[in-house]
Amino acid sequence: MELSPRNLQYEKVEDFCALLKRCLESYGVRCARLSEDEIWKKIRLRSIDRFTKVVEGFIQRCRKLSLTSEKLAYLVDNHKCASEVEQRFLDLAQKFYQSYLQQLQATGEDDFDGLMQKAAAVIASGQTVFRRKSSTGDLKCLRYILIDEYQDFSELFHHLIEAIRQQNPQAQFFCVGDDWQAINGFAGSDLRFYQNFAQFFQPSQKLNIATNYRSATSIVDIGNTLMHGLGTPARAHKAIFGTVEIADMGQFDPTPKEQEKHPGDSITPAILRLVDRAIKDRKNVVLLSRKNSLPWYVNYGNGKGKSKDGILDNFLNLVRSYLPEESRKAVSISTTHKYKGLQNDVVIILDAVPRCYPLIHPDLMFSRVFGDSIEQVVDEERRLFYVALIRAVEHLFILTETKNFSPFLEELKSRKRIGLLDWLDYPPFVGSIQRITVKVGNKAGKSGNGTYVLKHLLNAEGYTWKRIQWPAWCCTYPAQDFSIQQYFDNAQWISSASKIEVRFYDDLENLLAKYLVDQGEYIPIINNTPEVD
Predict the structure, then answer these.
(1) What is the mean pLDDT of residues 157-163?
(2) Using the 8-state DSSP alphabet, how is residue 104 labeled?
(3) CA-to-CA distance for 271 and 327, rounded, in angstroms?
(4) Where are the alpha helices (DSSP H) in 304-415?
(5) What is the Cα–Cα distance from 123 to 117, expressed in whole angstroms?
(6) How far apart are CA 208 and CA 495, in angstroms?
(7) Would you state the pLDDT for residue 431?
């Protein structure tokens, strides 16, 4: 059953629902519209869970900004809501936040952000002596203080550092950070401390550390291209050029055996091809995802590899299940956020598509009161994509889909030529050859109707039309006892063919033979099969 946006475009909602119902009932699916109460009972737990997570994130933001109930109320009162939903949420969120603070005070408990606030207050009061099991110390005696990952500096850390500086004005600070890798805004990080460094530390000096010691030249270049105009470009330390390839899933044509093993699932056989090559080259590979989910359909069949570990771990288990035991540890998976600071020989970015890079969450409306905007989110998503790109040491694959490229990838392509992976260079991950695929298409340079006049004959013999790579009619046959001579003897369409090319492939997409068929005659152009015609 197939419906398209066009059905909804030219019909009213009720008419579309009626059409959908008729289609379902034609397949024996019983349709009964649920009441609002029945729908709520089905989605109640999911809705409450999502609301809980949004409120929890809201409270965490308030704590990281050291907001009191009064300060939050002031922000809300001076904020212009874009919708009634946003206004109702903020009204509720204020009540939850006030209750949360009252609960902390009543129990004497505290969260990490509260401990940070108290630490700054204690130091500001003059209590600078600290004790550890091994020794004691005094913040007033510190001469040098190093702050790493300074691009992730937050309001809470700023208050703590300011308290130390008040008690120890002579301390010198050495701060290291990379604004191109500032990806933790959701956790309270504020890039203004990095961008306005001289404003917070006076006098100060800025030094650029532009050398990339991790990645090959082509990978460093692709990162620089993405961040063009946003700072000092990186320089590659490694002499190797490396490889960057776009792996277009729209151009991926699973073999019959891959279709048989992974019905409806293209991502698993595609990843197995790439992983298999990496393992044979004795390289380790990591699969990187923007989210804790995948934008592709994965067929787990009888539950192979599926557990309660989460979508990414389930997919990793599935991929590993097809690999030899000794090779499984060479493949890992992670979200891009968690993989920051790490590296691998081969990196496969799983989701260079819209709604992944950039990911603009619908809950953004609930954090607008803190100054969040779509522009800020897109900027941070760009930095996150940059982090994903430069995790690779030697080889970077960017998985995407025809006409569904991430805007960041479209931008990269407009600025720089990026190689397009040829799936034929990556043979299917299969065992013994079980099928032969016959492809019937037009001879190069042939004008006229070509295979068009044969379509009814080919269709009758079980052929299907495929446009990927070389447009042709395709049909598969068991490899056992397959004979090219016998194939031509039995093919009914040959007598009507005029300058038609026939190609024979195995499960690995190896070209076994190529023939020119014209007026009932078939002439070998290439024949790598054991038989002689």
Answers:
(1) 95
(2) H
(3) 15
(4) 311-321, 336-339, 374-389, 407-415
(5) 10
(6) 72
(7) 54
